[in-house]
């Protein structure tokens, strides 16, 4: 018996990287889950075989479908988004439509519904921009560096305002970089792992290796989200989830090379540099500890071993690597047409 037994929970983006782990943990707690996903990056197989999960396939921008998905739901965890930063350089409007506008509509329909009584929004540490001071607490200024991050911040603050306006139980979670299996996007850890595993000569090409990030294993972040869902004290709060440790991308590469037992030589590829990149993210997680009793449990090494092992057993391919926004998106070697 768990507190979430038979509780009807809508998880948007439930087939995604983080969403599928949230769904898996809710399933273990016997919640009655509806995963709402358009499979633009999420995959059905990531939630296959879970007995308490219904699936709604479609777009969170589709008003009628959102109304249908919310029917009888008691709680909502909203993860669906376009999350890969380089994609936003070519589609800023689409990022706002999906990440900001659809989030406001989903929240508004949840407020108007007769059954929903809790809403958890998954924001992002990217809303802070590069650290003005470390570690980054929830009071840190929000100075986003990408239209992705601005779209996430728009939803983050709009939903907080709607919580105030309507006294509707809402929690805003800001996860720092998350890694683990069920990969959907060419985030930095999958990118490094794929190059390390596929190249015999040990040479790998990356962009900004001096940047540092706070990485947390996906089961820990998902556990924090479930804790926020169940905590009365979390209502109306904005809470960081992150390990509280940061690592330079350069050092991450050496650590991963050690784990796969390979010698590595990093070549910096200028075309892979992101414009206006965030240099440093490091989480102050004291609020999560205080309010939720949350602390990360999986070490970086342990998490990396599991992730690499997953990649070895689950071949993944991505579209071409990000190569300088102009060349990539306006007729160069890239993958998005003007
Ligand atoms: N992975 C991280 O490091 C990280 C860090 C901070 C915040 N986040 C946030 O966590 C959430 C999940 O990200 P993720 O890393 O798991 O990426 P993801 O791409 O795996 O997850 C996004 C999910 O939303 C679905 N989706 C996208 N557009 C949709 C639409 N219009 N309608 C319905 N479904 C749609 C995708 O198919 C996918 O399943 C996002 O909101 C992201 O901003 C992720």
Summarize the helices and strands and which ones pair or pack.
Elements: E1 8-12, H1 17-28, E2 32-37, E3 53-57, H2 63-70, E4 75-78, H3 85-88, H4 92-112, E5 118-122, H5 147-166, E6 170-175, E7 178-179, H6 188-198, E8 203-206, E9 212-213, E10 216-217, H7 218-230, E11 238-241, E12 247-248, H8 249-260, E13 265-268, H9 286-292, H10 300-313, H11 325-329
Parallel strand pairs: 1-2, 1-4, 2-3, 4-5, 5-6, 6-11, 7-10, 8-13
Antiparallel strand pairs: 9-12
Residues 13, 15-19, 37-42, 59-61, 79-83, 98, 122, 124-125, 152, 175, 177-178, 184-185 line the site of nicotinamide-adenine-dinucleotide (NAD).
Describe this protein's structure:
This protein has 338 residues and is of the alpha/beta class. Helix content is 38%, strand content 15%. It is built from eleven helices and 13 strands. The chain has helices at residues 17-28, 63-70, 85-88, 92-112, 147-166, 188-198, 218-230, 249-260, 286-292, 300-313, 325-329; strands at 8-12, 32-37, 53-57, 75-78, 118-122, 170-175, 178-179, 203-206, 212-213, 216-217, 238-241, 247-248, 265-268. It has a seven-stranded parallel beta sheet with strand order 3-2-1-4-5-6-11, sandwiched between helices. The protein has a two-stranded parallel ribbon with strand order 7-10. The protein is globular and about 60 Å long. Nicotinamide-adenine-dinucleotide (NAD) binds next to helix 1.
